[in-house]
Amino acid sequence: MCNVIIYSRRIIFSRLICLAAVTAAFRAKRLLLLLRRRVGLNAASVQDGRAQLGGSRSALGLCPVGRSFLFILTFVVDVVVTHSPPRSASPLPLHDNTRAIPFAVDRKQRTRVTIATAVNTPPTTMVLLNPTRGNRIRGLLQLAACACVCVCGGQVQSQRAGGGNRDAPVVNIRRQGAVSGVEVPLNKIGHRAWTYLGIPFAKPPIGNLRFAPPEVDPPPAWSGVLAGNAHKPACIPDPPVRPHPVHRLFATITPSPVKISEDCLYLNVYRPEGVVPEEKFPVMVWFHPGDFHWGTPIYWDASVLAARHKVIVVTTAYRLNILGFYTDNTAEASGNWGLLDQAAALDWVQRNIDSFGGSTQNVTVFGQGAGAVSVGLHLVSPMSRDKFNRAISMSGNALLRTAVTAPDDPEAVLDALADKFNCFRNTLTGCLRNVDAEALVKGGGSLIRWGPVVDGPALTGNGTAAAGRREPFLPDAPAALMDDGRFAAVPHMIGYNRMEDAFDSFDGVNGGGEGITKDRFEALVREGVVEEDEDDRRARQLRRLQQQQTTATVAPTGETVGGLSDGGGGLGGAIEDEANCTLDVDFVVDTVVLRYARQTDDPETLRRNYVIMAANKAYGATGHRVAGYVSRLNATYVYRYEYKLRATKALPAAAEWMDAPHGAELPVVWGVPYWPSASAIDWTAADRRMSDTAMALWTNFARHADPAHRSAGVNVRWDEYEPRNPRAMVLDKVPNMSLPDQEPEFWNEYYPKVLAVALQCCANRTAESSATAVFAAGGPGPATLVALVLVVLWTSSSLVAGWPSPMA
What domain of life (predicted)? Predict the structure, then answer.
């Protein structure tokens, strides 16, 4: 609303004149918007000599021109017309935060007309002081002032409570409607961003749409202009008992409390202000972390990333936990709803991002943790082909042992759900659709870790596809799909942090405050590495027996049990899946200890070595496997993040010895040292330089498919990945290429062979008698000893040959 107050002897007449001008301006503006909407004009389709963001031409074209005209005209009149002090009429007092600006001087009446604008108030409020008998010049100037301020200011006035931000231009979204945004000033970097928050990309997944693919046709539509100035509620989470310190950081610097709802399928668009370049902006679509159980796009403010590096960033919500990944192993509910939400968001980007100035031919998907696993699964999913052009995986990939959920007994899980919510087993899915959403998340989360599943076509006994089943998102185990070359061969940037699981391994519960002994090191290897792999092997045995009983078809390298499948990771198929097998756990533990702890007894060194070893096995080795697949077909870049934040308030839970735990790269990649909401944190100059480097590398890759492209002024050399020469970019205070990394070879090539030797299989005996026979002689057999010697020789020779130490 434009408030114009005229004080004079003829106050009524002056108000009527200005009111008529204001009314005419608003009517013209509304008519223009209506006309543009009717004829289907939108932002990216208007190209008349230069690309413009459409929907509100006055905000981009008329405002600067109107303001310039107003100031120039004011200056000319002030110079040409004789200045004289105002008549002795007492001026009206101004508010403390108001400043008076000379506007025009009446030559005959020797009276100065002044405009008072409140410094901290919206630009649509104007007070005209002391006008007297109007002449033609003063009348025209008053009308011009009213029209310019109301038309221009009305378009850019902020709708954010408590902020001085202005409106971003209105954008028309095909088949949905118009949406307004907010212009966000970023004083620390000298740029502004336009943000459009809370745009629906699918109908609310409630009622019969719970446990169903997102409904996007027709897309959600609205009348009028949707206010994109606030986030919509987050998807209902099932948060961990102890939130990760990095996520606590982002939750702390999020300005407002996060509301939750089952109606949560909304996305947010962040883009640079101003004119769209001829080639349009690169687009980056973010999948947030949270173990598929919690998390929200609300934490991830991309204003700095978008404004500084001229990219469009889209952050999207997706359903989580049981609401996002429930499956009953039938065509009715085959699972992966959260991944289908992500695919629907990518479809929305392909249909509509050009309206915001983005290029549909240059879309990068990127994510961290569960978001990076999502990126990896989209790479191998046939449903996501041609929806993106590049991929960035941060601390996660589709080959992680936890990437795909495979419960030991899926039927037992469904029986437990039926009992918990008083449902009949044969109508379980329909019954659960009527359970309160928050109660369902709380009750269902205690039964199983819900997550992605292999939802390949369920087959009947005669091998025909089950009737009514939708196209699968994940038709086979990720490893099998990559082995067969069934993945999107787009340029890929992938990496991990050197101390990924430092918080989880040593958090006061597992000890390690002053370091660990060698006995503790061996116990951690036994519990967290070898026995975990043995549990995976036994789980595969059980699923194979279940498949044989249900006549389900066995996939080449991953077993499908009515929609729940082995992830195809773990031991890589090197172990025989015989029913009567026993693993020589002690031998495998000794082999790992020999590699990582034989040269030291220092407690702090042993603690550091264990954390780095765990990161190498879980994230580094699998990441290098993915890089090996993709690099055969397209450019691939691998990094290892090692920078330790200097800001003590950023991650207060991080011990001094932790340099780069899981998530430590997120504040620098997202430019958090420049966020207005994070200004209370003691960021150092080194933190800001690291953030500058990381933002440039990530957006460079999105723009050029080359993170070290020279056009952005990045002065680093980052070579493409070569499987025979597995080097990585070490992201530290001074980024540099590493020496060839031997850790991927150890975990991907030699460790499975050690397991194969340590596994004793006797098909004609029970497991107990097999174990007795194997260890009756008091230790491992000759084959085991030979394998041990080979590992020792390989480790020693690699070090002698100049390869770096595993702890280098």
Answer: Eukaryota
